[in-house]
Design goal:
Chain A is of the alpha+beta class. Chain A has 9 helices and 19 strands. The chains are: A alpha+beta (330), B alpha+beta (112).
Chain lengths: 330, 112
């Protein structure tokens, strides 16, 4: 009898332990996208604080919102930035440099000319692109302490790193308050804190360009999984050519690098966000060369003909769906 | 007596587990979807109860609209006048990832 009481007691204890960290979630629209945060052991106040944090970031970084620091910089050619915006700009410029301009935070006027900011899609003339490209060069963005300046007509946009940075901020806030288990989805950028409550890695599904399918499932722990692809925002031009929203800063045209999507996995959401765009522009060979030269992140490339290329470490924790998989040589 | 008690205990546990898995299988997993506009649930649809295809329009408060198509077991945004068309390109809803139209603040997701 005593044993039974003990067994029942143990069972009850296990059940209770499972309930201790309750799941709580919040979802909302910000930064032109849909964000959802699912955390264990976080109360409503903490989740609300996460939401407020993102909204205040958006107010600083938005390229279209009058009154944002970036808006002021673009409007006046110079602006005194907050320490946070200045630090993010510095990181973004370092990424532009590291990727040799495959990522360029000044490509906005070109994106706008193609109609991706308004939805009125069009193919600009060669002359128009030529003129606009003279305004594209991250090296002309000057940052000294908190004072930033850009040449006349140039426009800075931190959209390529902002979502990743917002994810980093939310993760930091959650960790600070003792949360050991959380998963964030910021419009396709997935970032996880710790593991699932049961101690196993989070399962992150990497979306496939074709509608409902997944490229595969990835085990993730304390990291960001960011995918850039040409399949979400695109239009078909008069000649039937698909034009995606990711611009090649060198040509001023949508990137046509033979890749359908790029997924970058690493510690920093900001870096993964910026790199996923840059590697998409570089194409498979460029991306592989960049990874060999710099490392510090893992990646999964999907070529337009439907083959996956994956870095060795990542391949050990990736379960591919219906796509052939090739491991990239180190 | 001792063995009997154990058998009863395990049998009870087994029945409980079976009931629990049956419940999650048939009622728990997502065939009930919600249409949510800026945080407000506009409509809930049990996709398994849909017999005939239905198409309806959801108007956005800021102007514009999304056309939603529902068939037995599935749902998608079939047309929209938003600038990016991400919701349309997305295709049918799959468990886990909601269909989102950020410009119109519309989310179609499986009910939790």
């Amino acid at each position: 009898m005593r044993k039974i009481v003990f067994a029942v007691g143990l069972l009850a204890l296990l059940l209770l332990a499972g309930c201790a960290e309750q799941e709580n979630s919040v979802d909302f629209f910000a930064m032109d996208t849909y964000l959802s945060i699912r955390a264990y052991g976080a109360d409503d106040t903490l989740l609300q604080a996460c939401k407020t944090r993102v909204e205040s970031l958006e107010k600083k970084l938005s390229v279209t919102e009058e009154g944002s620091e970036i808006f002021a910089l673009n409007e006046n050619g110079q602006a005194a930035l907050s320490p946070e915006t200045a630090a993010l700009l510095e990181d973004a410029l370092a990424l532009c440099e590291k990727t040799d301009g495959a990522l360029d935070v000044t490509v906005y006027p070109v994106v706008r000319a193609w109609g991706f900011t308004t939805g009125e899609h069009r193919v600009p003339t060669d002359a128009e692109i030529e003129t606009l490209l003279q305004l594209v060069d991250y090296r002309k963005v000057l940052l000294s302490e908190l004072l930033a300046s850009v040449p006349d007509g140039m426009m800075l946009d931190l959209g390529s790193v902002a979502k990743g940075y917002a994810g980093d901020c939310i993760c930091a806030l959650l960790r600070d308050r003792g949360v050991k288990s959380a998963i964030l989805d910021l419009g396709g950028n997935v970032q996880v804190v710790g593991t699932k409550p049961n101690g196993k890695p989070w399962k992150v599904a990497v979306r496939a360009p074709e509608g409902e399918e997944y490229l595969g499932i990835l085990d993730a722990q304390d990291e960001a999984v960011v995918t850039s692809g040409g399949y979400e925002r695109f239009f078909i031009d008069e000649n039937g050519v698909k034009r995606c929203h990711i611009m090649n800063p060198e040509t001023g045209c949508p990137a046509e690098s033979g890749l359908a999507s790029v997924t970058v996995v690493g510690q920093s959401g900001t870096t993964c966000d910026g790199l996923s765009t840059a590697l998409f522009v570089m194409g498979r060979e460029g991306a592989e060369a960049f990874w060999r030269a710099h490392g510090g992140f893992e990646m999964l490339l999907l070529s337009e003909d439907g083959t996956l290329f994956i870095t060795p470490e990542l391949s050990e924790r990736f379960e591919a769906g219906n796509y052939p998989l090739e491991v990239i040589c180190p | 007596m001792k063995t009997k008690t154990w058998i009863i205990l395990f049998a009870a546990l087994a029945v409980l587990l079976a009931a629990l898995s049956a419940w999650t299988l048939f009622w728990g997993s997502g065939h009930v979807v919600q249409l949510v506009q800026d945080g407000t649930v506009l409509r809930e649809i049990d996709l398994n109860r849909v017999t005939d295809e239905e198409t309806f329009t959801v108007a956005a408060p800021s102007g514009g609209s999304n056309t939603v198509t529902v068939q037995h077991g599935r749902i998608c945004v079939s047309a929209a006048d938003c600038p990016d068309q991400i919701c349309v390109h997305r295709g049918w809803l799959t468990a886990g990832t909601p269909i989102v139209c950020a410009p119109h603040r519309l989310v179609i997701r499986t009910a939790r």
